């Protein structure tokens, strides 16, 4: 299997939004029969939930929406991930700050205005600076052109809203590959 585009979805604890995005995206690319083009994972910026599975309410939301759930245990993003993934896709600004505190200058932080253009040009081309390969970091909804944040259902309790926002961002990402 040849993997062309390597994506890491990131949220605070890796038990709700990022793992929902991983499961939803995995199903989307399987349905389009393009799953061989991707390596998809998820991670947290914090250590609070390391080793835990998907939050039950997130799992229930995916089941209600007929999404196959990816086997998952929460992990924290590591410095090495900046070279392992082409794109590190955060759910909100807090996640962006968390990723920056872990990766620092090992990654390139793409502005919302540039995400769509860069992804469309060549989503898997490595970014190199000073001889070091770096991942590109952005927010998921930057792919929609709006740059908004994915609401955190841990606090809002509204998993259906989060599901819809994630799905919208993922559809926009995939539309750039057409």
Outline the structure in words.
With 178 residues, the protein is α/β, with parallel strands linked by helices. 39% of the residues lie in helices and 18% in strands. The protein is built from seven helices and six strands, in the order E-H-E-H-H-E-H-E-H-E-E-H-H. Strands 1, 2, 3, 4, 5 and 6 form a six-stranded mixed beta sheet that branches. Strand 5 (127-129) and strand 6 (132-139) form a beta hairpin. Helix 1 crosses helix 7. The two termini are 21 Å apart. The model has no long low-confidence stretch (mean pLDDT 91).
Describe the protein's topology.
Layout: E1 5-11, H1 17-31, E2 38-44, H2 56-64, H3 81-84, E3 87-90, H4 93-103, E4 107-109, H5 112-121, E5 127-129, E6 132-139, H6 153-156, H7 159-175
Parallel strand pairs: 1-2, 1-3, 3-6, 4-6
Antiparallel strand pairs: 5-6
Helix pairs in contact: 1-7
The average pLDDT is: 91
Instruction: Label the structural class.
Output: alpha/beta
Query: What oligomeric state is this?
Result: single chain
Helix content: 25-40%
Main sheet summary? 6 strands, mixed
Low-confidence stretches: none
Count of alpha/pi helices: 7
Summarize the model shown.
Helices cover 39% and strands 18% of the residues. With 178 residues, it is an alpha/beta fold. Strands 1, 2, 3, 4, 5 and 6 form a six-stranded mixed beta sheet that branches.
